[in-house]
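User: Before I run my own analysis I want an independent prediction to cross-check against. Here's the chain; please return only the structure tokens and, at the end, one sentence I can use as a sanity check.
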Amino acid sequence: MEKSTVIGLVMGILAVGVGMVLKGASITVLINPAAFLIIIVGTAAALFNAFPMDQIKNFPVLCKKLVQQPNHIAKDDLLRLFVELSQVARREGILALESRLEEINDPFLKNGMSMVIDGMDVDFVRDVLDADIEAMEERHRSGALIFSQAGMYAPTLGVLGAVVGLIAALGNLNDIEVLGHSIAAAFVATLLGIFTGYVLWHPFSNKLKLISLEEVEIKRMMVEGILSLQAGDSPMAIESKLLVFIPQKVRELLKPKPEDK
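Assistant: Structure tokens:
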């Protein structure tokens, strides 16, 4: 599970709830079905109007990505894999890697390795893999855009909800007590709109973009490793090429200790 998303949600809710109590506002004012209807259903309606159904269908999958740990190969494991594969290729030839394909679970890596083993041209392999990455980036951009657009619509709908509430409040001008409660309820929609927009939707969009950037970098690392295998580079050369994708602190941990030499 991606703990940061859960922590962010809990902290956001607590911040608003505790903040309201400290300000002397009652938590019970948040029990406002009309405000939730305007913000939640209204935002959903805006998204249906803004995006085709094929993209809207991906919303549950995108939400799942936000709370799950990314299911891709770690960079250090990928480095070790390519060094090992290069050692096999240098000893037994590139065709010997075919027996290792079943051990590879990543479809992108498996496809690239298959093309190299089949002897396809290096430019063709690079073009296919780059096109695959570009298509993935476009899908990810579309997914993140859904959340960023929701973050734009929700606060505006909050203003709309406040206007609707004030219209209702103006009908109770003769009763000051009822008028006060009506005005307070009117601004609940604004609170929900701002909260969902800037604590949920915009941050979720940002997190999806960061997840996408990480996945793209891993795939770029795979491309470099695949093409290095095809070029017949030595294990040391491949290790040097792929280390540039790994943060400096992690590189230090990957270096063999003196007692291991």
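Sanity check: The mean pLDDT is 89.
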